[in-house]
Specification:
alpha+beta; five-stranded antiparallel β-sheet; four-stranded antiparallel β-sheet
């Protein structure tokens, strides 16, 4: 897993025609991904985003609608979904600078995820120690 926000781009497959992506950053407060682009002509941005990184779901676990905003204007986009990812094809006009994709979930602070993973890794050791102690062995 990534160690900071700059690594989120490593988890997302993307291709851009007529422009360059400079940053892909999660915004946990608004449950969105912020994508900075430069040198944009009339182009297309294609993103394949793992659902573990970013998603939009209802309380029942069904897919919810994503929203794509380019420079503060909501736009229509194409979407293909699987159980593991969502692929978006977004057309953008010349001069575009910021693409925001709004969902219901985005990876929070990556340090928090690291703590969860560490806890999961240590848990079996704690359980085994507790079992050993309960069998009457020395528990120091």
């Amino acid at each position: 897993l990534p160690t900071d926000a700059s690594d989120i781009a490593d988890l997302i497959e993307y291709a851009i025609l007529d422009g360059h992506i400079t940053h892909i950053v999660p915004d946990p407060e608004s449950n969105s991904l912020i994508i900075d682009i430069q040198d944009a002509g009339n182009g297309t941005l294609t993103l394949t985003i793992p659902r573990t990184v970013f998603d939009a779901q209802t309380d029942d676990g069904e897919d919810a609608e994503l929203f794509v905003i380019i420079d503060k204007t909501e736009v229509i986009f194409e979407e293909m979904t699987t159980d593991i990812d969502r692929t978006l094809v977004i057309e953008f006009p010349a001069g575009s600078e910021i693409v925001e994709i709004v969902g219901t979930f985005v990876i929070p602070e990556f340090e928090a995820i690291s703590i969860v993973i560490l806890t999961m890794a240590i848990m079996p050791i704690v359980v085994m120690s507790a079992r050993t102690c309960s069998l009457g062995k020395y528990c120091g």
